[in-house]
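Progress against Task 2.4 (sequence-to-structure conversion) is shown through the following example record, which the project officer requested during the mid-term review.
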Amino acid sequence: MRVKRSRLGFVAPAGAALALQAAPAAAQPCALELLGSYDTPGFAADVVLKDGLAYLADLNTGLHILDVSDPANPALVGFFATPHAPEDVRVVGDIAYVADHSTVQIIDVSDPANPGFLGSWLSGSDVQNVDVEGGFAYVANYSDGMRVLDVSDPTNPTPVGHLGTTSSAFGIRVVGGLAYVAEFNDGLRIVDVSDPANPTPVGFYDTPDTAVDVDVVGSLAYVADSGLGVQIIDVSDPSSPSLVGTIDAGLIAVDVEIVGSRLYVADFQNGLLIIDVSDPANPSLIDSYATPGNTHGVAVAGGVAYVCDGETGLLLVDISGCCPADVTTTGAGVGDAGYGVPDGAVTASDLQYYVNAYVAGDLAVADVTTQGAPAGSSAYGVPDGVVSSADIQFYVNLWVAGCP
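Structure tokens generated for the chain above:
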């Protein structure tokens, strides 16, 4: 995950450690099951996935690179011992960026079996989280706020921008020239980073508990708000974010990942939660998987959830039964949401189809159906017959997740 609650002495709020049955009733259990696991020497904190590999930050040892092409048998491919305590990782191209206590470590992973040091930056604070976009690394730097590094030369990361925050910066996501900062005691801060040298605050939403992580898709931000669960915030107007929905019964949310209409939550004491957010104003628990440790992070791909479970290590959980039901099969109705692809599994060619239709702006194509109409021989569909950027994002998310 993005935060070092283990080192910061994270303590669950009184009454927060409820049994899972205290959470909203599950809509349709997914028959979740453990496929495989990898026991790290220390505390599994964060994981990202790329090209059949899992990049795992272990708080006590460093960066572990695993072959997860067979989820039942994850295998160590390479390892890089970082100097401090890695708790967050991003991989862009052939480079891994690791939040390593008081530093950002930049590691060459072009040969996963032999990762090598490229450069580092000493923060002067406690690096909690890092995101990378357009040659810049955006750092949630705890009490120091947000830092922007020019990493165009990865051997010489250079600070170029800074924004002080009123509380500690814990989590960060950068989307479309905006940085979304989970600001611990204060909530969600939205920052214009179109000029990375001059980050400018544009909006703020005060969450009820402690904001520690954030994921953003389209016009919605999903904030892990510790003992009060997940806050779903409308950020369509960045200057005036507003609450859309929340799920908080029995949750200690420390990490979130949104894929299509499913929100995957790392619940510190209860494990993995899967939440239906197709109606963000009324999120509902679909299913949960109780883990033996303290769940710290989650990533999803190929119908598998990769769960960082602290001292237990990395757990690989089959979530294929939780994929959205509104991607239909050939000849079936488009369904309530109006989405569809020919064989029920989103492929790269399906994505290209929708991108072409979006770019053309001509949705009179015969197999792009309207809400409620039969899917037709090709079974393509979007809710209102007009392909939007949000529709494309929906399908991209499903493709990444391996969801039918």
